[in-house]
Each structure stands twice: as structure tokens, then as C-alpha cells.
Amino acid sequence: MIGNRYRFVGAGVALTSVALVSACGGNSASGGDSGTGAIKIGVVAPLSGDSASAGTDIVNAAKLAAKEINKDGGLLGGRKVELVVVDDACDAQTGTAAMQKLMSQNVVAVAGGYCSGAAIAETVITDKRNVPFIADAQTNVQITDRGLKHVFRTIGRDDKQGEFAAKYMVESLKAKNVAIIHDNTAYAKGLAEAARTSLGKVGGKDVFFDAITPGAKDFTSFLTKVKSTDPRAIYFTGYFADAGLLLKQARELGITVPIIGGDATQDATVIKTAGSASEGFATTTAPLPSFISSAAGFVTAYKKTYNTDAGPFAPYEYDAIKVIADAIGRAKSADSQKITDALHATKDYEGITGTINFEPNGDRKNAVYVTAVVKDSKFVPGKTLDASGAWVDAG
Prior knowledge:
single chain; 19% strand; alpha/beta; disordered N terminus; 395 residues; six-stranded parallel sheet; eight-stranded mixed sheet
């Protein structure tokens, strides 16, 4: 199991005040903390649209983290953590409005999100207000490569995932000719281009590179073109809402080569939609909650609280909230700029997803990737790279 050095402290006790924001308008103050009362932390996630289930998962994880912080006495001498939750619908325009609402609520930091396109817009707003934003699932390189001083990630980034995917297909699957399919979103296209670049560096090549239309109900013509290029593997970097149907129709067309998805296809919806066609489907992803022994307590608490399994990004959101709390404690302040400075100074924070340190641009150091493979209608550990660069079992 991965990351067994860390212990989850059980969740429970006092309910965190979670507010669904309805207020609009702006506030010129940066950080917004009054020095008394609850410390407000913003949580942004898609709570509507095709990715709503992933967003709900992220919000639930944030609630567990906040409950635990408050159970342990809160922050700065007993001040409670209050989450302020907004819906960005995985859309840049909606995300912009959502982030403005968060700023008007005087949150001192933000943790969450799911879609990179929304996060790229949202982080412009938080950075101008000197409010730290920790991304838990958004992997596009632009999020941290624009020189913004207040952006961090508890997850890896697309260029690293693309490199991992290319090596997996060429070295582990022995598939040199790969068809790459994306959906033209910031995340999917970025990951597809990263995989394409990396393929050339490890002895492979892309024989097909094009985008589907998200939400389409018939990918048959598109997949027929893919099949005609005779790929030895297919890498789909779009979202889970399309992956299941794409997978099902590919198998119905007689495409038998391995089909691999990016981390946005890591969702049980794929299995429900594709049925038996999902067997053998693999994803490139950060380690899933069930793969991380140090997240076992969190997994149990999540199941007990919400009567469902924690989603793939839930522990990364839990750690994002906790590392903000840790920074507030070290800064001895809820001032947003001081929290940002403390986050940059984070040293070996022991999260449930492993040790967290940040690069100067806010990226997580040494982010880990694995493959998760569908077997008997559930995702099980596949492969990962060890420190020497050899492929080993991820479980």
C-alpha cells in the first residue's frame, strides 16, 4: 500500500458551519479576516453539471477535515473553521462569479475545484486578492506556471501525468503506436499534448490526435477513424461523463487494444455506463483513497458519514484543508498573505496522501502516479514506477 507512514485522526464532533453562498458583490479588503469569530475557508467545486458527483465528493471531504479541526479545538486559540461552499459548474465564467462571491464572504483561503479551465480563471481572482488557493484535482500546467504567488496544489500536474502515461503504454504495455483522444477542454487538451510530447521521448508516437464533442451520444464515426489508424493503445484524456460511452462503443466496433484514460475518467460512472466493456480499462491517476494505507481512517470515516465510498480526489481535498490549517497555525494568523507565506514554507507536512512540500511555483513536490485497472467491475491497483524507474505493482 502507498503512503503508510501517516495516520488519520478520526473525524467527528462539532458540526462545521457550511454556508451555501448567495451573496454577491465585492470587497476590496484582502484576506478578509476580522481577527475574531470563525475563520472562513472557501471551497469551490462543481455541484451542478456532468461533474457534480465529483464536486460533491470534494465538498464532503472538506467537511470532514473541518469537523476534525474544530473537534481538536479549532485554530488560533479556539476559533472555529467555517467552510463557505460555492458551485463553479466546471465552467470558467461560472467559476469567476463563484470566486467573486467567495471574496465577498471574506474567506482567508480557498481549497478545492475539479476542472482546470475553471481554476485558471478562478486563481486570477484569488491571486489579485492575495488569497491562497490550493487545487486538489486541477492538473493543467497553466495553473501554477503563470507566476501567481498564491496558488498551490496537493495533486500532480499534466506534464508529469502525460510522461507517466506515455511510459506506461510504451514500456509496460509495449504499445508504441498510440491514438490520443481529448475533448478540447484546458485539462484534456493539455494532458493529451503532454502525452504526445512524452511519447516521442520514450520511443512511441501518436498515430491519431483529435477531439471528441463532449456530451455526444454517438462516437461511432469518430472511433471508426481511430480504428483505421491501427493503434496499439488508445489514451483518452477527457472526462468520465464521456468515457463510459466511448469505451462501450469502441468495443462494439471491435477495437480490442488497451484503452487508458486520464485521471478525470477515474469514476465509477465509467463502469456503470460501459458495463462489461469496462473490464481491463485503466486510468493514469494519483493513488486512489483505497490504495493509500495512511488514508484508511479517512476512507472509513467518509463511508460512515456519507454512506458511499470516497472519490478519487477526496483525500487530496482533505489534505488541502488540513495544510491550510497547519499554515494558519504556523503563521499564528489568519491573514491571507501570512497564510500564503506559511504555505510556501511548508516542510514535510504529513498528510493522509503522503508528505507534502511545495515547489516555489506552488506545485506539490514528488507527486505520485499509478494506474488503476477495472477488474470485476471495480478499480484495483495496477502499476507504478519505483524510485529506480522500474514498473512495479501499485498495490
